[in-house]
Each structure stands twice: as C-alpha cells, then as structure tokens.
UniProtKB/TrEMBL annotation:
Lineage per the UniProt record: Bacteria, Bacillati, Actinomycetota, Actinomycetes, Streptosporangiales
InterPro entries: ABC2_TM (IPR013525)
Organism for this UniProt entry: Sphaerimonospora thailandensis
Stated name of the protein: ABC transporter permease
Transmembrane segments: 20-38, 144-168, 189-216, 228-253, 265-285, 321-343
Lipid bilayer topology: Multi-pass membrane protein
Length: 361
C-alpha cells in the first residue's frame, strides 16, 4: 500500500500546481458564484416604491410608500420613474402604462384588507397542514437536480479523461517501465486513480462551497429546500463511486494505446456510456418519481448520476438508496478487478494499438 500512496502523492503534487488546474478551478468558482446571483438580477424588484397622496395606508410588505403633496406631483414622479405607481386618496392608482402584475395584486390585497378592517370584520386565515412534499420547493429542487446533473457529468468525464491521458503519457514516454521497477502495476494504477480522484474532490468541494456561499450572499439560500446537507453528502458519495467506475475504465482503455492521438478512439465506448448516463439522469431530473427513473437509479453505472439527481429532485426511500449504493459498489469492485488485469497486461506493450480481446485472452 505504501507504493500506492506514493504514486497518489506524486499525482497530486504534479497536477495541483499546473496552470491548467488552477485556471480551470478559478473559472469554475467564478461561474458557480455568478450563477447564484442570476435569479436576483433577473427576478425583478424585491421592493416597490409607491407614491401616496392623502393618508398613507398601513405598512405593506415589499412596498415602500413615498408621500406627495398633490396628484400632480405624484403623476410627475410616476412618469419620471421615481416610483412604480402612485395611490391617490386610497381610490385610484396611477401607473406609467400597465402596472406590474405583482404590484397590482399587492395593492389590491392591501386595499381590500383595509376596507374589511374599517367594516369591523375579522377574517380568520385558513390553517394549512402539509401532508406530502412541500410544493413550494418543487421548482428549486428541479433546478438543483439539473445543476447537479451537469456538475457531476463534467467532473466525472473531466477526471476520467485526465486518468486516461496520464496512462497514455507514461506509456508513450516509457516512464511506466521505470515506475514498475519500484511499484507493482496495481499500485501504480490505484495511486493514479486515488491521486486524480482527490483533485476531482477538490473541484467538487470548491463548487459546493462557492455555490452555497454565493447562495447565502445573494439571499437565494432562503429558497433552498430542507435537507441540503443530505443532498450535498449524496453528491460527494456518488461522485466517488462514479469516478472509481469510469476512471478505471478510462485507465484500462488508455493502456491499450501509446499515443494521445489514439486516445479518443479507444475511449469511445466509455464516453458513449457516460453520455447515455447523462441523458438518463436528465430524464430522472424531469420525472424523479417515475418508474424509469426509479429503475435506472438502481442499475450501475446509471445510478452514479441518476440517484443523486433523484435525491436532489424529490424524496427517495432510504432502502432504494442503500440498494443502489450496494449494487454500485459491487460494480466498482468488478470493474477494478477487470481493469487492473487489462492495465497490467497492456501497459508495457508499446507501439501499435493493443486489441482488448487479445489482452483478455
């Protein structure tokens, strides 16, 4: 195991200081942080300025009242854009064109409540009791699921490609022959997967930390559904399982070639599988409680993206999560054993592309 950790440390030290890794991490952090402010920028006003002529009404949430001496002054303020609308003697509303639908509803509701209060009536509000999933969070959960789906896909394919490129680079330069004099093939493979996996986790951690920080800074955090800690933990666990599966495939396929130019061709089966997993997870984000999503979230490797997306989009029974995790772990073990066998037999065979069937036989 010492050899594995030595290789892992070498991968981390070598990659984490590269300009490409630092720049891509910074760009990712900026994009994620900016994404949290988009709803605030395009979501319209949080408060409205409304001019008042006469007695100002009682305080209304999201409305700031500005008093004017007469209707002419209020009309000028509306035309100049100083206020969104003006309330004249609690009877007429002046607006520059069509009044904002939301503001109109707020003013109508406030006017109605004032008249009811003047009549001496008391309105007892309905008592609302939730008996199922909170519909108020459905839209937010759907958005989280879509964001999580894209984040996992790009991190998984980005990390797996780095593993494959590293394998081909070492094989093509014949450095692997020197390394294998000090460590065993499975230690070299495992160390590369673990080391680059740590870098993938750093990427994921930065995305989560910046995303949550920006959400609190922009006020978007108040709209986040309960159980965010579970969603975050689920994303991390499933990323680790998905990365272990796909990075092992990438290393095994990468060991079949000696040149970077041949890498895309040999990785086609893996990239097609990852793309299919992405498309299936999109279905799960749209219909998280549907039968196809429930079935596919249990089947490896689709579960590596479908299950965390389902967890973000809706409540998922704990039994299904445990079963999906157990099946995915079993699939990872199988792929690790098979991938290590292919890597060991092919990584020292330089020159022309090695056929997978030949290696297996």
């Amino acid at each position: 195991m010492n050899g594995l950790w030595l290789v892992a440390q070498r991968e981390i030290r070598t990659r984490i200081r590269t300009k490409g890794f630092i720049v891509s991490l910074a760009i990712t952090a900026v994009l994620v942080g900016a994404f949290a402010f988009i709803p605030k920028l395009f979501g319209g006003n949080d408060t409205y300025d409304v001019g008042v002529v006469g007695t100002a009404p009682a305080a209304v949430e999201q409305v700031k009242f500005v008093t004017y001496a007469d209707e002419a002054a209020a009309r000028k303020a509306v035309i100049d854009g100083d206020v969104e609308a003006a309330l004249i003697d609690d009877q007429t509303v002046l607006a520059d064109g069509e009044i904002n639908d939301r503001l109109g509803l707020i003013l109508q509701s406030a006017h109605r409540d004032a008249q009811i209060k003047q009549a001496g009536l008391t309105i007892t509000p309905l008592r609302v009791v939730s008996v199922g999933a909170d519909a108020a969070y459905e839209g937010v959960r759907a958005g989280l699921a879509m964001l999580l789906m894209m984040m996992l896909f790009f991190l998984l394919i980005y990390s797996a490609m780095f593993v494959a490129m590293g394998v081909v680079e070492e094989k093509g330069s014949r450095i692997v022959e020197i390394l294998l004099t000090s460590v065993r093939p499975w230690q070299l493979l495992g160390g590369k997967i673990v080391g680059l996996g740590v870098l993938g986790l750093i990427n994921l951690g930065v995305v989560i930390a910046v995303g949550l920080g920006a959400a609190f800074a922009s006020g978007l955090a108040t709209d986040l559904p309960p159980g965010m800690a579970g969603i975050v933990i689920s994303a991390v666990v499933w990323f680790i399982l998905g990365y272990a599966f796909f990075s092992t495939l990438a290393a095994a396929f990468g060991s079949l070639v000696s040149r970077q130019e041949e890498l895309n061709g040999v990785l086609t089966p893996m990239t097609m599988l990852m793309t299919l997993t992405y498309l299936v997870s999109y279905l799960a984000a749209a219909e998280p409680t549907g039968t196809p999503a429930r079935i596919l979230s249990l089947i490896p490797p689709f579960s590596s993206m479908v299950m965390p997306v389902r967890t973000a989009a809706a409540e998922v029974p704990l039994g299904e999560i445990v079963l999906a995790a157990a099946l995915m772990i079993a699939a990872v073990v199988v792929v690790l054993l098979a991938g290590a066998r292919v890597y060991e037999r092919a990584v020292l065979r330089t020159g022309a592309r090695v056929k997978l069937g030949e290696v297996i036989r």
